[in-house]
Amino acid sequence: MSEPMITVTVKLFAIYQEVCGVGEYRLQLPPQTPVATVRDRLLLEHPELMPWRDFTRFGVNLQFVAPETLLQSGDEVVLIPPVSGG
Fold first, then answer.
1. What is the per-residue pLDDT for 83?
2. How far apart are CA 56 and CA 36, in angstroms?
3. Torsion angle, CA of 26/8/44/51, rounded to 10 degrees?
């Protein structure tokens, strides 16, 4: 019997939010999914975001994490593209 899917909340900022048209959504994933998979799935749906792929940082539950960090059900994922300010 396979493990149940996990559910995470994904928060989008800056260019991700502009392109996707939402600031937050829920995503169901298989157990043992690394956080980078969230970004990669988003890029499949919105290939125009590809220029930001290698510059995006990841946050899980208000902590910066490595791309290979495994997600757990209930996690809050933040995709953080490069930002510039003035």
1. 72
2. 9
3. 110
Q: What's the predicted TM-score (pTM) here?
A: 0.89
DSSP string, 11-75: EE-HHHHHHHS-SEEEEEE-TT-BTHHHHHHHHHH-GGGGGGGGG-EEEETTEEE-TTPBP-TT-
Domains present along the chain, CATH in parentheses: 6-80 (3.10.20.30)
pLDDT digits (tens, 9 = 90+) for 20-59: 999 999 999 999 999 999 999 999 999 999 999 999 999 9
